[in-house]
TrEMBL record:
It comes from the Bacteria. Residues 31-375 form the Aminotransferase class I/classII large domain. Its cofactor is pyridoxal 5'-phosphate. It holds the Pfam family Aminotran_1_2. It comes from Companilactobacillus baiquanensis. Keywords: Lyase, Pyridoxal phosphate. Belongs to the class-II pyridoxal-phosphate-dependent aminotransferase family. MalY/PatB cystathionine beta-lyase subfamily. The lineage of its organism: Bacteria, Bacillati, Bacillota, Bacilli, Lactobacillales. InterPro entries: Aminotransferase_I/II_large, C-S_lyase_PatB-like, Class-II_PLP-Dep_Aminotrans, PyrdxlP-dep_Trfase, PyrdxlP-dep_Trfase_major, PyrdxlP-dep_Trfase_small. Its EC number is 4.4.1.13. This is cysteine-S-conjugate beta-lyase. It is an enzyme of class 4 (lyase).
Length: 383
């Protein structure tokens, strides 16, 4: 039994999430209020006790731990030869954009999507092209005709896929992934699949590297223990690239940009997480399901005009607030100013995000109750 009931006070500890006013309740950035697994903390203590923090390189044990984790958790074992260590998923994405595309190219995303993808594309002088996800009022789907049209544009050279998808919380099925990979192959578009949320899934998740061999030759997959175990500031991630030529190109990029060297804690934390974190993750997932059920029940009985979009992954809830406002930025700032509840405004994710708020429920259930109370107050006052 691990502790998912208590959280520690992170105000004034340089926490990005908790750098807020005294009465404010942050439920925005994807960072959990649960302590990480004690097995990981033990590995950190052991490393600290060694008292030497010299240069390091990724170890064979690390790559084996990643492969074993995917085999045990997700029934699919990536070859360790396919892997590159990198200091984060966002640094990897930006580096890949620079290495495998040219200035002025189109990089395709599926809005609404993780807002930092836009930074990685635009800050490097590439254009964003979006295959907006189609929302029917209940669920999202991929418009494959639109996707094909946009991939067939000769200026489109890279697609960034988010699986599971942040912020809508959807796990793409093997059939959907196969269709996407086929289209990318047909139009010679490289496919970068960000699977950082792949472990917190409630429906089977298919790592893209497990697709048919002929569909993974232009594929790059990014994974990390950072979301799963709440260790984002450890800065450890893996890029999995089955094709040797493409892997060498990306490897040169991350090395010349100095993104390939682990800090002192990256190896012990990742290895402990991947080798000893299975039971902790199982309990975390149960807690997230309980929290989500609470939100669902509360909204149905107390706030029926706010709809929770059904999801099968992540601790990020996508709340449809279109009946309240079509300006989520204004709504989110109003709720924060009046009640202290700090949610992510959906507009930053592009697409139809102006109709949504994103709520992070990776916190003790008492905190979720507090957040819901504030949400109700804020929405009533807004009206
Ligand atoms: C889809 C997605 N990719 C990447 C990241 C961040 O990755 P990293 O901290 O490894 O740069 C996040 C964080 O929320 C995310 O949601």
């Amino acid at each position: 039994m691990y502790d998912f009931k208590n959280s520690i006070d992170r105000r004034k500890t340089n926490s990005l999430k908790w750098d807020v006013g005294d009465n404010e309740l942050p439920m925005w950035v994807a960072d959990m209020d649960f302590k990480t697994a004690p097995e990981i903390v033990e590995a950190i203590h052991k490393k600290a006790d060694q008292s030497i923090f010299g240069y390091e390189e990724p170890s064979e044990d690390y790559f084996n731990a990643v492969a074993n984790w995917y085999e045990k958790e997700h029934d699919s074992r990536p070859d360790t030869d396919w892997m590159l260590f990198v200091t984060g998923v966002v640094p990897a994405i930006s580096s890949i954009v620079r290495r495998v595309t040219s200035v002025g190219d189109n990089v395709l995303v599926q809005a609404p999507v993780y807002n930092i993808f836009y930074n990685s594309i635009l800050n490097n002088g590439r254009h964003v092209i979006s295959n907006d996800l189609a929302f029917d009022g209940v669920k999202y789907q991929i418009d494959f005709n639109d996707l094909e049209e946009k991939l067939s544009d000769p200026l489109t050279t890279l697609m960034i896929l988010c699986n599971p998808h942040n912020p809508i919380g959807k796990v793409w099925s093997r059939e959907e992934l196969t269709k996407i990979a086929r289209l990318c192959k047909k139009y010679h578009v490289k496919l970068l699949s960000d699977e950082i949320h792949g472990d917190i899934t409630f429906d089977p998740y298919t790592p893209a590297f497990s697709l048919d061999k002929e569909l993974i030759q232009n594929l790059m997959v990014c994974v990390s223990p950072s979301k799963t175990f709440n260790v984002a500031a450890i800065h450890a991630a893996t890029i999995i690239i089955p094709n040797e030529n493409l892997r060498n190109i990306v490897d040169r990029g991350i090395n010349s940009e100095e993104l390939a060297e682990p800090n002192s804690f990256a190896m012990p934390v990742s290895i402990a997480a991947y080798e000893k974190g299975h039971a902790w993750l199982a309990e975390l997932k149960q807690q997230i399901l309980d929290n989500k059920q609470l939100v669902q029940d509360f909204l149905e009985s107390e706030l029926p005009d706010v709809k929770l979009i059904s999801s099968d992954a992540t601790y990020l809830l996508w709340l449809d607030t279109s009946k309240i406002s079509d300006d989520s930025k204004k709504l989110a700032s109003f709720i924060r100013a009046k009640t202290g509840l700090y949610l992510s405004s959906g507009d930053v994710y592009g697409g139809d995000g102006y109709d949504f708020l994103r709520m992070n429920i990776a916190c003790p259930i008492e905190t979720v109750k507090d957040g819901l109370k504030r949400l109700k107050q804020g929405i009533e006052m807004y009206r």
